[in-house]
Design brief:
This protein is α+β, with helices and mostly antiparallel strands. It has two domains: 67 residues, no CATH class; 204 residues, 2-Layer Sandwich (Alpha-Beta Plaits). The strands form six sheets. The chain has a four-stranded mixed β-sheet with strand order 12-3-14-13. Strands 1-2 form a two-stranded antiparallel sheet. Helix 4 packs antiparallel against helix 5. The longest helix is centred in the first third of the chain and has 20 residues. It is globular and about 45 Å long.
């Protein structure tokens, strides 16, 4: 099966452009990007495609800067989330997660009762806080177990988080977003004649080549797909979202799509009162969420 499709796109001044779009990462050849209409707020039919193209253009621009000059953030428009959980599946596949484990979650919340029942969906993942409680808790017990990169990404050292130091347990308890998960070493194809290659294959996290066996017994979380970012690809969850509810980019770039959204929209952060300074921003349903406690976003409090 082909991994690329050919799209016909209407460019400026009535020009029709053939675009080769990758089905894996939704990347577009750079020579094509330069000829596309870059307005992210164009006609409705073209808007989703324009946003993907713009995020890749933003990413290209960010990668030309030193790491210390980048500031990665995610923006989630919950008004557009359809609850299909494609982002969850994409994340699990990208990171070869064990059974029952995902770096992302999407919980549905009922709003108003019958007969005016309404339901909305709240996606979530590690917030990559600028003041991460997990880092403080873990590093008290194991120095360097968790680090904060200059670009904002919170990094786990899987080897240092193993063992009996108590660092991994401390990190898990400290996270107010319930974003940290255990890797107990299980496989979907346990108790079958052979473990399937999709579970035993190598994969990348924090730019390190890994296998499930190597990180058994540690804790894991969303990495903002840093291995994809530094290869010129947006995170797997963002590229897969069918509702185009997710955006990613460099907040330090005033021309980036995420910067424009944060400036233009009424964004909010869950549990902002804790002083964690999250890097995941939400748009919409501000009136339906208890922003102080993050109840709607971190429904894992009740669904553990």
């Amino acid at each position: 099966m082909t991994e690329r499709i050919l799209l016909r796109y209407s460019g400026g001044q009535g020009e029709e452009i053939s675009v080769c779009l990758c089905l894996v990462c939704f990347c577009v050849n750079s020579h094509v990007r330069n000829r596309l209409n870059r307005n992210p707020y164009g006609e409705e039919d073209d808007m989703a495609f324009n946003e993907i193209v713009k995020m890749h253009e933003d990413l290209d621009r960010a990668l030309k800067k030193p790491v210390s000059k980048r500031s990665w953030v995610m923006v989630i428009d919950v008004r557009k989330c359809v609850g299909d959980r494609a982002c969850v599946v994409a994340c699990m596949a990208e990171n070869v997660c064990p059974p029952g484990t995902s770096y992302r979650w999407v919980f549905g919340t009922e709003y108003r009762g019958y007969p005016d029942l309404d339901k909305f969906y709240m996606p979530g993942n590690c917030q990559h806080c600028d003041n991460p409680p997990c880092l403080k808790a873990a590093n008290k017990l194991k120095k360097g177990a968790i680090e904060k990169r200059p670009d904002g990404i919170v990094v786990f050292d899987y080897q240092k988080l193993k063992g009996s130091s108590g660092a991994k347990e401390a990190a898990g308890k400290a996270c107010p977003y319930y974003a940290i998960v255990d890797d107990n070493g299980g496989y979907y194809t346990d108790n079958t004649p052979i473990l399937e290659p999709y579970e035993t294959r190598t994969f990348y996290e924090y730019n390190e080549r890994l296998t499930r066996k190597k990180i058994k017994g540690t804790i894991r979380k969303c990495t903002f797909c840093v291995h994809r970012l530094e290869s010129g690809m947006i995170p797997a969850c963002v590229s897969t979202c069918i509702g185009r509810a997710m955006y990613f980019g460099d907040k330090a770039d005033p021309k980036s799509l995420v910067s424009e959204l944060i400036k233009r929209e009424d964004v909010w952060n869950p549990k902002a009162n804790l002083g964690t300074k999250p890097r995941v921003y939400y748009i919409g349903y501000k009136d339906r969420a208890n922003i102080a406690t993050g109840t709607s976003v971190t429904c894992r409090v009740c669904h553990q």
